[in-house]
Design brief:
The chain is α+β, with helices and mostly antiparallel strands. It has 3 helices and 9 strands; from the N terminus they run αββββββααβββ. The protein is elongated, with a radius of gyration of 23 Å. The protein starts with a helix and ends with a strand.
């Protein structure tokens, strides 16, 4: 059971391909919050960010002035694109489901314990509660997307590697 939980955690949280973008393709025209890193590595906290054809218009939070910058002067943009409510919902519900599954397995293996008639409906309530708590926690965590506008490209790839004798590892490749 412990191996199953570890494998599930590995698949859900760690197994992913992380690749930097090849082109600037903004998903929205307007963003509420963001951080701008200029070519000289100066950082600007911005709000009310609007994407224009070859520049961005934003409100500088330090000076409270509207500013327009060309993409040529920007190293990268870190823009807030939602939150992790869905991920929290999934992880909270799954975690409670695994805890309840473990409790049912232990109760069925112990002759001194009995499973109540309403255990299934109570289990669904606990799973729903775990999912709700996870969604609330995820709602409080902002999701940031980084758009690289500089000429540097870096690719990072993380792949699982399975060895004989139940071994598991990770292959990490970085190319610049």
């Amino acid at each position: 059971m412990k191996n199953l939980i570890l494998l599930f955690t590995f698949i859900t949280l760690i197994y992913s391909d992380l690749k930097s973008q090849n082109s600037v393709d903004f998903s929205k025209e307007r963003y509420e919050q963001g951080k701008i890193s200029l070519s000289n590595y100066k950082k600007i906290n911005a709000s009310d960010i609007k994407r224009l054809k070859d520049s961005i218009d934003f409100l500088d939070e330090d000076t409270q002035k509207r500013t327009r910058l060309s993409f040529a002067n920007i190293n990268y943009l870190k823009l807030q694109e939602g939150n992790y409510a869905g991920t929290g919902f999934f992880l909270g519900g799954t975690t409670m489901g695994l805890v309840i599954l473990r409790a049912f397995i232990q109760a069925s293996n112990n002759p001194n314990l009995a499973i109540r008639d309403d255990a299934f409906s109570r289990s669904l309530l606990f799973i729903g509660g775990g999912a709700a708590v996870g969604a609330l926690i995820g709602y409080a965590v902002p999701k940031w997307k980084i758009y690289y506008l500089g000429n540097k490209t870096t690719n990072i790839s993380i792949q699982p590697v399975f060895y004989s004798m139940n071994g598991l590892g990770a292959s990490i490749k970085v190319s610049m």
